[in-house]
């Protein structure tokens, strides 16, 4: 990955901008912070703007103003800086009090900062809790926060992750599990974060699954399979077809790029991804 400071000059920014296509597509695109963490956040914002992106994804509350000051939006925020974000989810009622307290604090902050989405997790499986009970637990916990989310205009997006490669034991590792929870909560402000990389690993059949479950999906993440690198022709997914399918069903949320770039110039990879998904 390129070292921080690589985009500091006007000429470097112009070179990156030249790689970017004219953004005329139907999808709002953003980029996740963590794969570009070697860049200072203002520098990431400059690079993101240069390639035509509208927002930065997965940021903590104390970072939101940095992005807005750079003229971009925050497409998704974290509810806290807790290191056990993924493992500790709504599948276990022991976690509910902590998770709800975090969201009760974060939702008003997000509303004031015009951050539309906050991320949440289903959590790691508890061997003592059966799958059906885990679904019920998630419904019960998320239903308690849904009224505040709705009143504030902020959507809680609960992420689907793979348990095969990256997150062994994660509960929400299939779309059917997440859809069952969303159906039970039945709130326009509690949705799924459908991570295309993770769901390709677990179940494939991505386009049909998205079409069939679009009513439950509030946010997307991208990443090449295998390896979570560029979404170009080096990997197995046809992201242009996937992006077109998402746009065709009238999706109005964000498609956030969450791949780990391998090129000497990470922003060249990001510019290419923007072009692929500009449908």
3D structure, described in words:
The protein has 10 helices and 8 strands. The chain is of the alpha/beta class. The protein has one domain: Divalent-metal-dependent TIM barrel enzymes (TIM Barrel), CATH 3.20.20.150. It has an 8-stranded parallel sheet with strand order 3-2-1-8-7-6-5-4. Helix 2 links the parallel strand 1 (28-32) and strand 2. Helix 1 (10-19) crosses helix 2 (41-50), helix 5 (131-152) packs across helix 6 (175-185) and helix 8 packs parallel to helix 9 (239-248).
What is the molecular shape? Answer: globular
Strand content: 5-15%
CATH architecture title: Alpha-Beta Barrel
Question: Count the helices. How many?
Answer: 10
Query: Using DSSP, what is the number of strands?
Result: 8
Give the helix/strand class: alpha/beta
Q: How are helices and strands ordered from N to C?
A: HEHEHEHEHEHEHHEHEH
Determine and state the CATH class: Alpha Beta
Mean pLDDT: 93
Percent helix range: 40-55%
CATH superfamily placement: Divalent-metal-dependent TIM barrel enzymes
- Give the termini distance in whole angstroms: 28 Å
Low-confidence stretches: 1-5
Outline the biggest β-sheet: 8 strands, parallel
Neighbour order of strands in the largest sheet = 3-2-1-8-7-6-5-4
The Rg value, from CA coordinates, equals 18 Å
